[in-house]
Design brief:
The protein is mainly α and 300 residues long. It is 63% helix and 5% strand. The strands form two sheets. A two-stranded antiparallel sheet has the order 1-2. A two-stranded antiparallel ribbon has the order 3-4. Helix 4 packs across helix 8. The protein is globular.
Length: 300
């Protein structure tokens, strides 16, 4: 399903495509899905663990805001946002179950802490929840740019299914990247609360992910290994170095995500996806140094 609408901030045509992709995320996948990059693999695993708690929170917040939105186009876009995020967290839930079945049962305890924190966050005001949502969605713009621009270093020779799953999620983040901030502005448009939400929404999710990847590295017996810790800190520094510019852009009072160009790779991914048959998985070729957005189509 494709949801299209003309943005209120310029002539950009928004296309939110709801893709129900049957990624095969089972026990055949090694949790260290990028050979030689255990720390990076677990950073991504940690981010995945947050999604079945974060994204339902985003969905509920957008739905709570809907009665306050008078713009019909924005209401349609919210529906596209909700349906994409639902597909994301359902796939992440299956992936996370695989991680727990592969010797990381401790992640169940981490998930319980997430459940408690988002239950508490859900009781906050709609203004704060929308600011948090817009803040996190802003941070994902920088994360998407990093993952796509650095895909050779981050994903070359990695598990094709996990790589394809992660980059699919990032492509769809570019498609709905302006919805959360448009909803916030439609309902409140308080600059200082938005900035506070930007900082806390981004930092909070990063800290939650850290809780998970720390637990996984401890389970591997690597947390006390100084070489492993150094590799981890380098990856964390790289993440912040790439996410921070996107957040800094958002500090400008007139900021809007549609003024940030989408990565060309993401747009090509979408073009190639149109050529797939129903039920096919858009599997990327990670053995190709460029990791082009051309698929080795695989049936589920």
């Amino acid at each position: 399903m494709t949801i299209s609408a003309v943005k209120r901030h310029g002539e950009h045509q928004l296309d939110i495509v709801v893709r129900r992709i049957p990624f095969v995320l089972h026990e055949g996948i090694n949790p260290v899905w990028n050979p030689g990059k255990r720390e990076w693999s677990h950073m991504v695993n940690g981010a995945s663990l947050t999604m079945p708690y974060l994204e339902p929170f985003l969905i509920k917040t957008m739905r709570e805001a809907l009665p306050h939105i008078e713009d019909d186009q924005l209401s349609v876009e919210v529906q596209g946002f909700v349906e994409q995020e639902a597909q994301h967290y359902q796939n992440h839930h299956r992936y996370n179950d695989m991680l727990k079945s592969q010797g990381y049962e401790v992640l169940g305890q981490v998930e319980e802490s997430y459940r408690e924190e988002y239950a508490a966050l859900s009781k906050r005001s709609l203004r704060w929840k929308l600011a948090y949502s817009a803040g996190f969605e802003t941070m994902t713009i920088g994360m998407t740019e990093w993952l796509i621009r650095g895909r050779q270093k981050l994903f070359q020779n990695a598990d094709p299914m996990v790589t394809s799953f992660v980059l699919w999620h990032m492509v769809e983040e570019t498609e709905h990247k302006s919805v959360a901030i448009d909803v916030y502005r439609a309902c409140f448009d308080d600059y200082f609360v938005r900035v506070a939400g930007l900082v806390w929404g981004s930092l909070h999710v990063a800290l939650l992910a850290r809780r998970a990847y720390t637990a996984m590295l401890k389970a591997d017996g690597m947390w006390g290994n100084w070489r492993s810790r150094l590799r981890l800190y380098r990856m964390v520094a790289s993440f912040f170095a790439n996410a921070t510019p996107a957040m800094a852009r958002a500090l400008v009072p007139g900021y809007h995500p549609q003024r940030v160009p989408d990565p060309a790779w993401a747009e090509l991914w979408g073009d190639h996806y149109k050529g797939l048959k129903e039920g096919e998985i858009p599997l990327l070729n990670t053995s190709d140094a460029e990791i082009p957005p051309v698929f080795v189509a695989q049936a589920a």
